[in-house]
Design brief:
This is Type II toxin-antitoxin system HicB family antitoxin. With 147 residues, the protein is of the alpha+beta class. The chain is 35% helix and 18% strand. It has 2 domains: 89 residues, 2-Layer Sandwich (Double Stranded RNA Binding Domain), CATH 3.30.160; 50 residues, no CATH class. A hairpin with a 7-residue loop joins strand 2 and strand 3.
Length: 147
Amino acid sequence: MVFQTHYLYPVVIEQTESNLSMYFPDFPGAAVTAVDLVEGLARAKELLAFRIVELEETGQPLPDPSAPEKIELEEASDRIVFLEVFIPPYRDAAANKAVTKNCTLPKWLRDEGDKAGLNFSLILQNGLKDALGLAKHDHSNNERAAQ
């Protein structure tokens, strides 16, 4: 499946007595609070990016962005702002997060590796890359190594 690189979604900004609340009408439950607009927009953009990547990874469809006239505001002071997010860096970060994988090996081999101070995770990663023909230095695109 081919995904877009840029997305644009509305975020509603509500001013309270002590801070700003921001929520995405197209992503129920996706909201942030902040003390000022700059911090709030940065946090909202990051939340939007992570939510988009989460939906992509689980194969769920992304909602269409709501038109401003379709968004009901609770207070006259509420504002709608559109946030654009460039997704590839967030996809790369998600693809490179560490995950746990159990590996079974003979006790004597584990003991020898421990004595030698070997990094089992690094050895397993490099071995898998070799077996798959992936370049050892490539951490984001997992392109096939040049033959």
